[in-house]
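[Solved] Which block belongs to which protein?

Original post:
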Amino acid sequence: MGEFSSIEMEYIRRHHRQEAEENQCASALVKHIRAPLPLVWSLVRRFDEPQKYKPFVSRCVVRGNLEIGSLREVDVKSGLPATTSTERLEILDDNHHILSVRIIGGDHRLRNYSSIMSLHPEIVDGRPGTW
């Protein structure tokens, strides 16, 4: 599973348990960010505003209240092989900094796709950071 540190592997095992079934794949990406976890989480947790940190999103409209099971309609910027995506909020854990979204529709080829994002504090160049 790539070149991850032992602590990264532990968090991946703990928070990103995905067993790929037939005709599925799974991947993990670790990104180190030079910003404190509370700041990064304040952007990432916004299911209603993914365009704040996803540059390929041009617009987002949430149907209903912002809670587990909420749906959002996302418009994707031109140049990608899609223009819309319908997504459901699966997990929003403010204590452990975990966000999970499942794609349930749209004009793209993604089927049975879900994304789990977890944030963890670290020190980057002697300052608070996030991975």
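(Second protein starts here: sequence line, then its structure tokens.)
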Amino acid sequence: MAVSSEQLAINKPEPWQDLRGKIVMVTGASSGIGWEFCIALAKSGCRIIATARRMNRLKALCDEINNLDRQENEGEASNPPRVLAVAVELDVNADGSTIKASVRKAWEAFGHIDVLINNAGITGVIV
């Protein structure tokens, strides 16, 4: 049975629905919704730049994500493990030059950023 191009177009996802290969930077990734965003996006094929203040939590998150790929490719001896997630320390309360340096590190991790999820929160009084 032949499939028409019209039928293929109907079943093809919109470009914004296909996240495979996208580089996503998530602020506030060390816990809560930010953590869950990172896991879900990695499972959808994204590479993750996880940012927050707590580097120990970010490293645990990135280890979890990077192990997802290793588990999927277990038994494939010739393929070196891919880096799917990197941790970058970023405090959104820091001064501009510190934030700029963190963003530069994030950019250099994969060469570009396709998507930014600004999830980081600020507690206390803003002056």
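Accepted answer:
You had them paired correctly. Confirming on the second one: The CA atoms of residues 53 and 91 lie 5 Å apart.
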